[in-house]
Amino acid sequence: MKRSLPLYIKISLLSLLVVLFAQCKQQQKAENGKKKIAVVVSTLNNPWFVFLAETAAAKATALGYDAKVFDSQNNTATEGDHFENIIVAGFDAILFNSTDANGSVANVMKAKKAGIPVFCMDREINATNAATSQILSDSYSGAVAIGVSFTQQLKKKGRYVELLGLVGDNNTWARSKGFHSVTDNYPGLQMVARQSADFDRNKAMEVMESILQAHPDIDAVFCGNDGMAMGAYQALVAAGKATKVKVFGFDGAEDVITAIKENKVYGTGMQFPKVMAETAAQFADEYIKGRRDFPQKIPVAVELVTPKNINDYIAYGKK
């Protein structure tokens, strides 16, 4: 017969395991004498978010931290796994680009409960008691400026398509609402189709191809990000309509800045990911060193880029 261990031995072993686990966490932190900052982004399948993540990690490294990037692949569950691993590994702060304004709140709250500050970059979460601070693009105002330019280019009349981003991202709706706050004032502007393409270039191309079959005669396309703008442009090229349809994006990504110079895309809203990423990293450093009085939200202005001022800009920012 097998004999079980006495209770006091089991308790001793359990206590030993807890001590070893705690020591392991401390060792992870102290291996090279540096504290650790995690950079969690919604996806690395988009050059704009790659730039955001790399800039945040580079700034954290320059400030003296070990930095590691985590790709959530636009999946809140994957994001949740990252947060759990980050908490167990004993990271000191998280620079965060969320997958979902509502769905990501629980993940941020887990980090807060574990004593790890979270600084949101670009994408908002719908809570004011979770993240330590949120550094966000002013998407609404940026889209208002695009709406004005869009209306002017179409001379207040024409048929157009809108491609939306992820429906769970507040930026999607801020941009759409800002745009429509202008265009809906002109009865001559008719939106013939509006579909989500999840901020994805390939999906935008497929969606646009389908829309063009039903609505072959359009004058313009407004896209919630530059990846979708490039996908829409590819579909227009394939349909032989690229020179007849004006395309507007939002981001300031490298391929669209080049496309504006080449008169392929008409305009975009220039976000400033470097400002958001470096501010988040700087805030994390200040938090770790003792600061606690951070503003809950910091808006970062978005600027309209068109052929008229393209020479003032480079990818992801101003010259």
What keywords describe this structure?
319 residues, alpha/beta, Rossmann fold, 10 helices
CATH superfamily of the largest domain: Response regulator
- Strands ordered across the widest β-sheet: 2-1-3-4-5-11
The CATH architecture of the largest domain can be named as: 3-Layer(aba) Sandwich
Share of β-strand residues: 15-25%
Instruction: Let me know the average pLDDT.
Output: 93
Can you give the helix content as a percent range?
40-55%
Order of helices and strands: HEHEHEHEEHEHEHEHEHEHEEEE
C-alpha termini separation:
79 Å
Structural class: alpha/beta
CATH topology of the largest domain: Rossmann fold
Quickly count the helices. Answer: 10
Structure description:
It comes from Niastella populi. Belongs to the bacterial solute-binding protein 2 family. It is found in: Cell envelope. The protein has 319 residues and is α/β, with parallel strands linked by helices. It folds into two domains: 36-136 and 274-299, Rossmann fold, CATH 3.40.50.2300; 139-272 and 308-314, Rossmann fold. Helices cover 45% and strands 19% of the residues. It has ten helices and 14 strands. It has a six-stranded parallel sheet with strand order 2-1-3-4-5-11, with helices on both faces. Strands 7-6-8-9 form a four-stranded parallel sheet, with helices on both faces. Strands 10-12 form a two-stranded antiparallel ribbon. Helix 3 (76-89) packs parallel to helix 4 (105-113), helix 5 (139-153) packs parallel to helix 6 (170-183) and helix 7 (201-214) packs across helix 8. The protein is elongated. The N and C termini lie far apart (79 Å). The mean pLDDT is 93.
